[in-house]
Every structure is written in structure tokens, then in C-alpha cells.
Amino acid sequence: MIPVSPAVTGVPYGRPVESVNARVREPKQERSRLSFDKALDAVIALLVEHRSDSFTLADVAQRAGVSTGSIYGRVSSKDDLIRTAHAREMERIAEEQRAAFATEPPAGETFGEAVERVIGTAAELLRRNAAVLGPFMLLANTDPQIAELGGAAHAELRDAFVDALAQREDEIGHPDPHRALEWSFTVVYSVLARWLALGSTQQASGEGEWSDILADLARMVLAFLTQPEPAPRKRRR
């Protein structure tokens, strides 16, 4: 079972939404801010349940226990409300990601252990947030604003992955270590995204044991990164 973020279970964030969407009208009262936060929590919960935006603003208002008028007082449409919820989730996940990758590696860690740790960090971050990321990634196919912000979040995860292993660049046998690390991330992300059904249907998700997949990815990436540069081929005369 994929874990669900705090917003999905109805636990409020306890912080305001600060200009995450230019189309959001700032609240004049604290009560209005809290009502809007509840509406955003309801959007996330409904997206996870439906795995799409096949719900109405009336559904959001009912789930949040607020009036539709209070929602329209802040945004002009359901799309803008969803975009605001997306921006807030991306901000939350980005903070979680930065904290996860800021952890100092253990003393005496081998390169193989570093590869396993970095892949595990990225994997668990995606797994914890998969229930929320999945429907937003599907919406990105038709919403340029969600696609742009999601693309920036993906790039930040890629850079965190690459930077974490680039510190061991002298142990990478590939002639272009940075490109090799970026390619490793692409492969790792693709495998994990398929297992977690990120941006796709859930029919192909969950195939194979999660722990086995992580172990296989770590072995594959380590072999790719440490393989020495092949000797140039001799040209046939």
C-alpha cells in the first residue's frame, strides 16, 4: 500500500498558502485563510480518491466543510484551485527532499553503499508521495502550468541525486561522470515511476518486490558507473 501524505488524511498543514498561484486572491481574515487551507486539503483528498479531477467545486466544498462562495472568493475556477493545491504540494515535497538529501553520509561508506543510499533516498521520497504525485502527473498531460512546475520539481530531484554521487566522482569510470549520473537517474526514475504508477495507469504498478527492485537498481547503476572506459576500437583497413 502506498503511504498517503498528511493532506490526504485531513491533517492541516498549519501554515498559510503564500503566493503559490498568482491567480489566488489573498485572504483578508485568518478565518478565510483557514477555510481555504481546508479546501486545498479536500482537493488533494479527492484527487487521490478519483485519481483525476472528476469532481466539482461543490464536492470540494462539501468535503472541506466550507461554502462554494468562500472558494470563489479566492479563485476563479476549479482549475486554479487544483493548480494552487499542486503548488503547495510541490513546495512541501521540495522541503522534504532537501532535508532527505542534506543528511551526511556515514563515515567509511563505500561507493557501492553510497549508490544504494542515494537510490533508496530518492525511491522512498517518491513512494511516500506517490499517491499525490500520480494524479498530478496525469493532469500535467493537459495542464501546462502543472507540467511546468512538475518538470521543475523533477529537475530538482535529478540534481539532488546527481550532486549526492558527484562527490565520489573519482570513483566513476565513465569518461563523462556527470552525464553518467544523469543517465543513471533517468533509468532509476523510470523504473520507480512505473512501479508507483506515476503518470500512468495503475495496471502495471507494483510488479516485483520493492526491496528487490531497489537492490537490482543499485547493482546496475554501480556496474555502469564503475565500468572503466573501453579501449577505442581499431579501424579496419
Protein traits:
237 residues, mainly alpha, 8 helices, disordered N terminus
List the helices and strands and how they pair.
Layout: H1 30-50, H2 57-64, H3 68-72, H4 78-101, H5 111-139, H6 144-166, H7 177-196, H8 210-226
Helix pairs in contact: 1-2, 1-4, 1-5, 4-5, 4-6, 5-6, 5-7, 5-8, 6-7, 7-8
Termini separation comes to 60 Å
Return the average pLDDT rounded to an integer: 86
β-strand number: 0
Biggest β-sheet: count, sense, barrel? Answer: none
Strand content: under 5%
C-alpha-based Rg, rounded: 21 Å
Share of helix among residues? 55-70%
Overall shape:
elongated
Order of helices and strands: HHHHHHHH
Q: What class, by secondary structure content?
A: mainly alpha
Low-confidence stretches: 1-20
Helical stretch tally:
8
Can you characterise this structure?
The protein has helices spanning 30-50, 57-64, 68-72, 78-101, 111-139, 144-166, 177-196, 210-226. The chain has 8 helices and no strands. The chain is elongated and about 75 Å long. The protein has 237 residues and is mainly alpha-helical. It comes from Amycolatopsis tucumanensis.
